[in-house]
Design goal:
With 420 residues, the chain is an alpha/beta fold. Helices cover 30% and strands 18% of the residues. A hairpin with a 2-residue loop joins β14 and β15. α4 packs parallel to α6. Bound molecules: zinc ion.
């Protein structure tokens, strides 16, 4: 009996030990697996296919957003990017955005949007902006003078609304000259310029407690800033061409010029005294150009544009003796190079990708009202309806129509050319 009892006792002890050992082993294995799962790291998804990514996401219980974008560097279906870095611990990931290429824009979309990067671009020429009601001027549609070189603030606001609603988006003159056109698919670029440095281009009414300029909201820049806030996608910018008197506000001129550069505007050269460069000697030509460059260089070194707006649009021919001195010269030991020159034109200029585009002789449109006649704003934009530049939305891709192939500048090598 004693022996039997002992056997049973041993058996129970053995069972208890067995259960304990089993429990330990199970816990250990369980712990190991969870640890491994917790430390699992995100793989590089950009080498996978969309189906493989979906599979990976469901296995690892990851939330993914698939975003499709046009892309000219990756084939349709290739992965462009993942929003979370490879190697990130899966337990720290809430959601991953996967951007997938749709390839280039489909022909049907190009046709529907009428994409035309061989189309024309309006470079608008403004002068003074006067804060008077359009009904108080003696002239038509917000012109302040007979020829419409000066506009009322009211008319200028109307012009900006009009350009925006017609699908125009501003680009910098320098970007037009360089052929860097960054406008969304289906939209058209427009360039704004102001000549003469009239104080009403950017009227300063004083300084705030931090010493920053206070800009009259009805001066040109005041109005442009208003539109910058109103339509952030308008890309508000403009280039101001000044004479030696800058913005005719001695006390504030340096601050004004620095402010313009810091706030996305550009400043260029309009000669020292608004000189007629078809009537100056070659020496005088160089001195009246050099002095403005030199002044700008001293205020905003290297940050102004080497572009000249030719006063009176003269000389009217590039074969004029002075032309070479407009583009390059030296005066009193100061040497300059002019990158581009603007005329006083009457119609939109060709695309920067057109073989006939000449950056040293760019036409502008006079921004004025003449009841739809003689190249006023209304007639210019009416004519543009059939010929306007319409963007493909890619800065480094030039999309043109098959019939315009012969117009393409063949020296353009830094862009992908697409024809349809
Ligand atoms: Zn002028």
């Amino acid at each position: 009996m004693k022996k039997g009892k002992l056997k049973i006792k041993n058996c129970i002890i053995f069972l208890i030990i067995l259960i304990l050992v089993l429990y330990l082993v199970i816990t250990l294995v369980k712990n190991l697996t969870t640890k491994e799962e917790k430390d699992k790291l995100l793989v590089n998804l950009t080498t996978l296919t969309v189906d493989e990514i979906k599979d990976y996401a469901s296995k690892n219980k990851l939330n993914i957003n698939l975003i499709y974008e046009y892309n000219y560097d990756k084939e349709n279906g290739e992965i462009i990017s993942q929003s979370v870095k490879e190697g990130t611990s899966l337990k720290n990931i809430k959601e991953i955005d996967i951007v997938i290429s749709k390839g280039g824009i489909e022909k049907e979309i190009l046709t529907e949007k009428n994409v035309n990067e061989m189309g024309k671009i309006p470079v608008m020429m403004y002068h003074g902006i006067h804060n008077v009601a359009s009904s108080d001027t003696e002239y038509t549609g917000g012109n302040v003078d007979k020829d419409g070189y000066n506009r009322t603030s009211e008319a200028f606001r109307g012009d900006l609304e009009k350009y925006y609603s017609m699908g125009y988006r501003m680009i910098r003159l320098q970007d037009y000259v360089d052929g860097n056109i960054d406008v969304p698919l289906g939209y058209s670029p427009i360039v704004l310029t102001f000549d003469d440095g009239a104080s009403n281009n950017i009227k300063v009414t004083g300084l705030d407690s931090n010493g920053n300029i206070i800009i009259d909201p009805n001066s040109a820049v005041g109005i442009l800033e208003e539109f910058k806030k109103k339509y952030p996608d308008y890309n508000v910018t403009a280039t101001f061409f000044v004479n030696g008197t800058l913005f005719n506000q001695k006390e504030y001129d340096e601050k004004i010029i620095k402010w313009l550069i810091d706030n996305g505007y550009d400043v260029g050269n309009h000669t020292e005294s608004h000189n007629d460069l078809s009537a100056t000697t070659t020496e005088k030509t160089q001195s009246v150009i050099a002095s403005v460059y030199q002044k700008l260089e001293s205020i905003i070194p290297g940050k102004y544009v080497n572009i000249i707006a030719l006063p009176f649009g003269k000389p009217t021919s590039r074969t004029h003796t002075n032309y070479n001195y407009i583009l390059e010269g030296t005066s009193n030991g100061y040497s300059y190079k002019t990158h581009a020159a603007l005329r006083v034109g009457w119609e939109p200029e060709v695309s920067p990708y057109n073989k006939n585009f000449n950056i040293t002789y760019i036409k502008r449109c006079r921004a004025y009202d003449n009841n739809g006649k003689e190249f006023d704003i209304e007639s210019v934009f009416k004519n543009l309806e059939k010929t306007r530049f319409i963007s493909d939305g890619f800065k480094d891709v030039v999309t043109i129509k098959e019939q315009d192939k012969n117009l393409l500048n063949e020296n353009i090598t830094n862009k992908k050319i697409v024809t349809y």
